[in-house]
Every structure is written in structure tokens, then in C-alpha cells.
Amino acid sequence: MTRGSQRERDRERAAARAGGKGKNADDGLTPEQRRERDGKALQEKAAKKAAQAAAAGSGSGAGGKGAAKK
């Protein structure tokens, strides 16, 4: 068996395994719409992370991040 045909078969198998995975660059949105959608998602993610940090920080009492030992 030649090496070239093995590579082609491996590429075909990899493509079949990938199936519908991967990024879909053509989602039907204009760049402006995509920016708005992504910005909103990032804001929601940041708010969720801040809420988790606040919940984790409020239960620790004294000490914690930023508290200096003297």
C-alpha cells in the first residue's frame, strides 16, 4: 500500500468523524449582528462569573483574596 492512499483514507475518516462539528462561519448574520450577539454573550458570562465570585467571597468572612497578613 502506498503512503499517499493511506493519508487520503485517514483524511476521509477524520472528515466523517468530524461530521457536523466545527465552526459554522456562515450563520446568516451580518458582522454587526454577530458583534452584538457575541458582546451580549460575553456580558452575560462576565455577570455570571462576578455573581459566582461574590457568592464565594461573601462566605469566607475575614481573610481571603487581597487580605494582607501583618
Radius of gyration: 24 Å
Large-scale geometry: elongated
Mind describing the biggest β-sheet?
A: none
The sequence of SSEs as H and E is HH
Describe the structure.
This protein has 70 residues and is mainly alpha-helical. The protein has one domain. It is 63% helix and 0% strand. It is built from two helices and no strands. It has helices spanning 3-18, 31-58. The longest helix is centred in the middle third of the chain and has 28 residues, at 31-58. The model has no long low-confidence stretch (mean pLDDT 81).
The gist of it:
This protein is mainly alpha-helical. It is built from two helices and no strands.
Task: Furnish the topology, listing elements before pairings.
Blueprint: H1 3-18, H2 31-58
Protein name: Small EDRK-rich factor-like N-terminal domain-containing protein
Biased composition (Basic and acidic residues): 1-15, 32-47
Pfam families: SERF-like_N
